[in-house]
Amino acid sequence: MFRISEILSQHTSDVRGVACLDDNTFASVSRDKTSILWTREGSSFKSDKCLISHNGYVNSVTFIKHQGKDYLVTGGSDKLIYVWDISDLTSPRYTISKHKDNVCTLSRGTNGTFCSGSWDKTAVIWENFSVKYTLTGHQSAVWAVIELDDGSVLTGSADKSIVRWREGKKVQSYMGHEDCVRSLKALSRDSFVSAANDGSLMIWNLNGDCLAKLYGHESFVYSISLLSTGEIVSSAEDRTVRIWKDNDNVQTIILPATSLWCTDTMPNGDIICGTSDSKVYIFSKNENRLGDTSTIKHFNELNAAFTESKKTKSSLNTENLPGPERLLTPGLKDQQVLMIKEGSDVIAYQWDLVGNEWIKVGTVTDAVGQERKQLFEGKEYDYVFSVDLEDGKPVKKLPYNVSENPYTAAQRFIEKSDISPTYLDEIANFIIKNSEGVSLGSNNENVDPFTGKNRYIPSEVYPKEDPVATKVKFSGIKGYVLMNTGNPSAIFSKILELNSKLKDESPSLALSDSEIKSVEKISSILSNPSVNFGKMSFSLKEIIKGASTWPLDYRFPFLDLLRLITSKDIGSHIFENEILNGGSLNSFIESTSQLGSISNETSAMTPMYQVRATMVMRMLTNLLTHSYGQIELVASSERIFEQCNQIQSKSPNKNLSLAISSFYINFSAFIYSYKSSPKALHSSLSAERIDSISLLLFESVSGWIGSIFSSKMKTSSASYDQTEIEILNRLVTVIGQFVLIDKRRYTEFLNSNNVISLIKGFSQNTDLNELSSVLALLD
């Protein structure tokens, strides 16, 4: 049986391809933009060379022999193929630019040839590093291509078909898979095996007959390879590598990663596997090459930790799961996950310590389903929406990756669907609204203390797999971010709970029954999206009372109601007289949330301080969508930016960081609109005042970028976690907005503060469309 031999951890993102040269040498390529050549030293492999040339994810790799010399070939999302001379890896020997999209597969051919497949729906056969044949005819991406011993070529595509080609012409089709074909491997001169997203492996003869269909995997099968003894090795999205002998699954190896992207085998019979946890795993049957005690222990611990945090439905004994009555018992720790059986479903709840309640985070299916991408025309997307444009007409598919600007995806959809560009804002807002959600088992700080829902705004990034390469010119922030997602009834329930406590703790502060009814009325109005809030009769007196007189740690539900209220157009009269009570915005912020309590350098932010600050920043973000809010924020901006700077210096959590960056995005969008048409927007605001505020905002944003990079340099870390990438991407977007306003002024400031070089350094560690378009402005 195969057991763990080694775990190699030099990559910093998904390992998308592995290829073996011999028993002592193999290569791995990754989404971290690097290719690593590994060589055996003694009993273990060491990183011999780390190759950096691709300007994007490196997704495919193979070795070839040409004129007696060994070459390493790599392909990436930058559409390029690099060929490296193994004897001299200082720079690529050849750079090949032929494909028009991501080069997703490479394979060794015969007599020095090699094959490439791409998202551009073509495969290319290369001889002497020049095009021999270009194979066109597939309707979607070509995920697999191999050359057979007789010189014919097989291609597998996202259009679910396999095609055999001879001398560049199509000679045979093989239909049988029900989803994208991901991998092909020759078994003999007249048979081959294929793997697909339908979870199956199929064995074929060249005449087109399916000889066997192998089932066992529970999700997409990404890669297949062959052992010298004839067994088939497959890896999939179900955490497993499976070994098949005589059409039977004779061994299943479970790994501590969801996506097992690639496999290859060595002549000595060892198996190499690259995974989504950025590691390369090597498995062996040979006793002399098995991992030592510490390696085996580490592998088992990784697996145990993964199983603990990402349960699958099949692993749960649903008969013994508690029912809904268990939700009456408080959780033991923040973000504790609890599985509840409700009828025939298993529902996941997460304990929210701040809200003191269980929040439903989804129906449990399996860990794979929480992270699986959807495929559309052979490419992988986070979302593929069905859009019904007209009664009686077929629905249109709208693909979207969270790593791209919603407006870019909307524009692409408009152009492809041939519909009016006037729908741009409506489609983009649809994407923003419907791309919200949480992932079960993730460390998700971006959660409301009431609803458990994520907020997404343009440029929020969750980098998981290859985004669709769409490089566009940065054209400014389109519209405003509106933070209006929430559950008013849950907020009201929290107010009732806290009010009950106050009746015992401080009766004079508790709301009376009539006051509670007034708050309930507001909650009911907010719960009905069809109600015109501005035309309703209501009073905010009780909400302001709770937000300003209750104990500080009890005020957050009132602040969250105010956040929802300010997402509506309530009019300047209500805002100025009921919310501000005739005072200033700064006075309101201090009386309700006391954000100034961390003004001294030694004071730290408590969890409840960060909750209050988050609610306030979300409210300010919404206020910037209204003219009366814009005027008040212009008047109060110095103090607000000062408090934001103080918070930024104390490592705010993700919720608070996202709220502040959303506020910055809306403020920069307002300034851009004012600069474009000052008289139409606010004739009462002076250009000098706007210029002064612009510089304050710009300094806050650029300073925050610098502080994040400084902290990285202090820890000698070159990698960025998801939260840092999300925040930096938003901040860079704001930088781009200011450069559009006055390129000379703000570029000079950026250069004098070394921010441009920092941003360019950041680009070496990420692959974000918005970032590249902003960098183009700065050049």
TrEMBL record:
<feature type="repeat" description="WD">
    <location>
        <begin position="174"/>
        <end position="207"/>
    </location>
</feature>
<dbReference type="GO" id="GO:0043130">
    <property type="term" value="F:ubiquitin binding"/>
</dbReference>
<dbReference type="Pfam" id="PF09070">
    <property type="entry name" value="PFU"/>
</dbReference>
<dbReference type="InterPro" id="IPR001680">
    <property type="entry name" value="WD40_rpt"/>
</dbReference>
<feature type="domain" description="PFU">
    <location>
        <begin position="350"/>
        <end position="445"/>
    </location>
</feature>
<dbReference type="GO" id="GO:0043161">
    <property type="term" value="P:proteasome-mediated ubiquitin-dependent protein catabolic process"/>
</dbReference>
<dbReference type="GO" id="GO:0005737">
    <property type="term" value="C:cytoplasm"/>
</dbReference>
<feature type="repeat" description="WD">
    <location>
        <begin position="51"/>
        <end position="87"/>
    </location>
</feature>
<keyword id="KW-0677">Repeat</keyword>
<dbReference type="Pfam" id="PF00400">
    <property type="entry name" value="WD40"/>
</dbReference>
<dbReference type="InterPro" id="IPR015943">
    <property type="entry name" value="WD40/YVTN_repeat-like_dom_sf"/>
</dbReference>
<dbReference type="InterPro" id="IPR038122">
    <property type="entry name" value="PFU_sf"/>
</dbReference>
<dbReference type="InterPro" id="IPR036322">
    <property type="entry name" value="WD40_repeat_dom_sf"/>
</dbReference>
<keyword id="KW-0963">Cytoplasm</keyword>
<protein>
    <recommendedName>
        <fullName>PFU domain-containing protein</fullName>
    </recommendedName>
</protein>
<dbReference type="Pfam" id="PF08324">
    <property type="entry name" value="PUL"/>
</dbReference>
<dbReference type="InterPro" id="IPR019775">
    <property type="entry name" value="WD40_repeat_CS"/>
</dbReference>
<dbReference type="InterPro" id="IPR015155">
    <property type="entry name" value="PFU"/>
</dbReference>
<dbReference type="InterPro" id="IPR013535">
    <property type="entry name" value="PUL_dom"/>
</dbReference>
<keyword id="KW-0853">WD repeat</keyword>
<dbReference type="GO" id="GO:0005634">
    <property type="term" value="C:nucleus"/>
</dbReference>
<feature type="repeat" description="WD">
    <location>
        <begin position="214"/>
        <end position="245"/>
    </location>
</feature>
<dbReference type="InterPro" id="IPR011989">
    <property type="entry name" value="ARM-like"/>
</dbReference>
<feature type="domain" description="PUL">
    <location>
        <begin position="473"/>
        <end position="779"/>
    </location>
</feature>
<dbReference type="GO" id="GO:0010992">
    <property type="term" value="P:ubiquitin recycling"/>
</dbReference>
